[in-house]
Design a protein that fits this description.
The protein is an alpha/beta fold. It has a single domain, classed as UDP-N-acetylmuramoyl-L-alanine:D-glutamate ligase (3-Layer(aba) Sandwich). The chain has an 8-stranded mixed β-sheet, with helices on both faces.
Amino acid sequence: MTPAAILAAFRHLRILVIGDVMLDHYIWGEVTRISPEAPVPVIHVMRESHTAGGAANVALNLAALGGTAELIGTFGDDGAGKSLVQILNQASIDCSRCLIDPATPTIVKTRVMARTQQLCRIDREATRHSYALEAGSGIDARLEAAMAQADAVIVSDYAKGVITQALLDRLIALADARGLLIAVDPKPARSLQFHGVGLITPNRHEALELAGLPEPGPGEAYPLTEICRRIHHRLAPNLLVITLGADGMAVSREGQVQQVLATEAREVFDVSGAGDTVIASLTAALATGATAVEAASFANRAAGVVVSKMGTATATPDEILHLPGGRG
């Protein structure tokens, strides 16, 4: 399938995203001097902006591609939560089954930017347990209702507490019973088990962790073949796609590397949220019936658009189609 055909088919699909929901806050400014109080830059603030982050950014990417997205996660009944709902509503993302907890603050990541340089990040969040979707919250009924309408499911784990082993087991069981594709963007340090899912999308460092391998030393090649073999032996995903940064993207099935796609990015400004774009566009493409290589090529194009922008961003159909070969 061509990118144009994938985008046309995706307009008829609905994808459920479940995971750690957050608000991304940006402070944009300029540095003209060093503080006399300490050897740190003084930021002259020019503007501030907000967008959806974490699992909410995955849903935002799906909506930007023209699909229908539903989001399930936990956030607070606070100013940040209200801003997040407004952003999601503007993108026509269904967040009606999210758990809004007055006792839990919305997760906020604040990035301080001096022109194109990120100077620091400030995180506001509670303990992981605060964001867990416990059985008492009626999550089973919410999941069953959402998955009855979904064509695919994305699990977006940012290690903030929403994704637990019990929830993951329930999601996989429900997806299997309905024959739904379930895709997982993992955090290997949490050691959650998701054997046999349809798709996993680790980055190059996460793939090493999943394979139980150390970082290559200076001058050593990235052990892609061994990584794919080990991850398949441990988790047996139907499809493994490893994002390799400037080296593109690797597609693997049955523990074998099928193809390595060169990056589509013309220039990289900011990789924030690029993993969200990859899993959103990959899952969307696979749900339309695209092959693994077609879906990975489509996701590679979408990621190439996003990393050329500053801040957490999305790719639109027009941006994807205007890349060379987009309409082919």
